[in-house]
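Continuing the series of single-chain predictions for the mutant panel. This is the parent chain; the variants come on the following pages.
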Amino acid sequence: MLRCSVAPRAGWSVLAAALLAGCTTVGPDFKTPAAPTATGYTAAAMPGSTASSPGLLGQSQRLVAADAVQQQWWRAFGSPALDGLVQQALDNSPTLAAAQATLRQAQETYRAQAGSTLYPTVNAKLGASRNAINASSQGVDSSSGKIFNLYNAGVAVNYNLDLFGGNRRALEALAAQADYQRWQLAGARLSVAGNVVTTAFAQAQLAAQVAATEAIAKAQADELAITRKREQLGAASRVEVLSLQTQYEQTLASLPPLRNKLQQADHLLALLVGQAPQQSSIPRFELSQFHLPAQLPVVVPSELVRQRPDVQASTALLHAATAQYGVAVSNLYPQINLSASLGTQALTTGALFGPGTMIWNLAGQLAQPLFNAGLHAGASAAEANLQAAGANYRQTVLQALRNVADALRQLDNDAQTLQAQAAADDAAQQSLQLVERQYHLGAASYLQLLTAQQQAQSARIGLLAAQAARLADSAALYQAMGGGAPSGKPAAAS
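Parent structure:
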């Protein structure tokens, strides 16, 4: 970081030397922070691929080194309906509309400030006045007083000579703010797309859980009907009937909460695509519609910080804080304003542009703070703000690395969970079928049947949750990698 070595009260000799040398820019020059030196994300090396299991969404996934993530990463799940819903959200989301408007505001603020500080301001003036002279004040007989009209026209030019770069630093800060808003928009797009994808997975999971619970309730209703007939024939006790009825009613009681969560997922999807729940036409997803991406991209940490919108937004804030510190430092130095005007003045409009009516003016003004303790305090405050922005940037980078590490571990652990849940579901379903046959033949008790039904219900719902988790984990990794956020020139330069 560089600072101008000229003392703020050095006097005319220093000012003259600076004018001869040309304008300078005080305060530190912004430099992009160094990228992380880490080569990985987790303390222990990640396996090259995840565990596999039979059945839906049980395939193994390979982690592949990549330079970037595809921008439309949600297409990797192989669902045209999901692709359409995400695009609808990106087109119609009020959140994104607000972020786009905020970005335009920042860009236009930069352009407005650039137009008024980088170039001289030129104003045309046209005026007329009616005047009366009090001749007696001049020691002349008042009868010689005169009333006359005065007309003038001219052009005035004003320019602030940005000798120490305060205006340029202010523009630099505005450009960085516009860049911050650009990355905020990219982050909002990633968040909207991610929310649509994960909510669609949750909707599919809940719909499957409702269907599974309804199927279990139907089986329990059938068992209850059979047991009641057996009771009438004296082959079953009243206790058996009441126990089965209790289990059946408990299963029915679990359905409304599941349906409520499913309906809330529908409402959330409607919100994300910019629709009212009553007017929405949200598709109903099924887990079988989705495919696990066979390969998942993993970029190295040094590239991650260039792709994550939150890290880039934090970088832009650090840049803005650096420039604002430069503005505060420049306030300690002389301010020079130049002005000039050229015009004409006459008593009649006909003579306004005639010979001998031209008037002109050249002026320069230098203001040097001699005593203003607030200026030094302002520079100290700006320096503290710069230090805070640097600390916030480092925290954002650490959070990004942790986010990726969490996503990678979830992929590995949830793949193992699905492997175990698939085996448990298969065993529970086989056990239930065997106990049901034995119960119909009178070879199994109602307690055995209840236990098998409970195990089957728990295993099936756990399997559905594990399948949905693998989908959500894949989406989380895409998001943690930055979701293919666009890069390029700062927004203010576009």
